[in-house]
Structures are given as structure tokens and as C-alpha cells.
């Protein structure tokens, strides 16, 4: 079973529970914070994954460190520790974020451009490309990539809209060279 499938199952279960309790936004924020903590202190993830400590001790550590987090987030993390899947936290958080956005009519989009986009440009891209994928709004992450020369490449899930100068030049090259 692939790791993304595992993370997807946990994320779906957590999302359903958060929806029932009407705390989707709070759980999403706690998961984002949890991922930030684990990214900035990889030692913690190593500690939670190591077999040197008992599962109960690991749960105790998690309960102390994340005492202010929502109890269902802490319980989910404890379950991941118990099932030896703590390395799936980042994938689970990403899947949960996508589920939360989709339930609100949003989608995550990555926009590649040669420079930072203005808020107005982001809004225009959001409304234009959101309609193409059937979403009300896109949450845009702007990635600066000078190699595209000009234009933008928009990635929304599995969809890629490539309107870059580099892509057009490559198409022209294929046409001319054959």
C-alpha cells in the first residue's frame, strides 16, 4: 500500500470527524502547526519513530508537547505512533488541507512565474482558472522560476495549464525540427 494511500485514509477519517464536530478550520490549523514543528525539529520525528522508547512514552511526549492542540489532532498523532506511521504526518496534513479546501469550494494551486505575483494578479488567476476546474476560488502558492522566461504555469491537482514562453518555444522547435 502506498504511503499516500495510507495518509489519505487517515486524512479522510480525521476530516469526517472534524466535519461532525464542525472544527475543520481549527484542525487544519493545528495540523499545519504540527508539520511546522516537525519540519523545524526533525529530532522530534526521529524520537517518535525510534523503537528505543515505548509507545506509551511517545504518546506521553506528544501529549505534553501538543497540549494546546485540538484533542482529535493529538489522538490522531497518537494513533499514528501506535501504528508506526508517524512519518505520514506531513502527507496526512496535506491530504486534510485538500479535503478542507474542496469542501469549501476551494482548491490549492501552484503558479510558476518569473517574478512574484501581485495580489490582483493572484485574484485574476484564481477566478479564471478556478472556473476551469469547477472551484469557486484557488489558494495560490507562487513559485518563482526564471527558466520559464515569461508567462505562467498553473498546477491545480493533476491539471497543468502551461502558458509560458519556454513551453511555446519548445512547441515551435518541435514544429520546425519535426
Automatic annotation (TrEMBL):
Xref: Pfam families: OSCP
Molecular function terms, GO-annotated: hydrolase activity; proton-transporting ATP synthase activity, rotational mechanism
A single Gene Ontology CC term: proton-transporting ATP synthase complex
Topology with respect to the bilayer: Peripheral membrane protein
Keyword tags: ATP synthesis, Cell membrane, CF(1), Hydrogen ion transport, Hydrolase, Ion transport, Membrane, Transport
Gene3D superfamilies: N-terminal domain of the delta subunit of the F1F0-ATP synthase
UniProt main location, coarse: membrane
Subcellular localization: Cell membrane; Membrane
PANTHER family per record: ATP SYNTHASE DELTA CHAIN
Family classification: Belongs to the ATPase delta chain family.
Free-text function comment from the UniProt entry: This protein is part of the stalk that links CF(0) to CF(1). It either transmits conformational changes from CF(0) to CF(1) or is implicated in proton conduction. F(1)F(0) ATP synthase produces ATP from ADP in the presence of a proton or sodium gradient. F-type ATPases consist of two structural domains, F(1) containing the extramembraneous catalytic core and F(0) containing the membrane proton channel, linked together by a central stalk and a peripheral stalk. During catalysis, ATP synthesis in the catalytic domain of F(1) is coupled via a rotary mechanism of the central stalk subunits to proton translocation.
Protein name (Swiss-Prot/TrEMBL): ATP synthase subunit delta
Organism: Lysinibacillus halotolerans
Organism lineage string: Bacteria, Bacillati, Bacillota, Bacilli, Bacillales
Gene name of this polypeptide: atpH
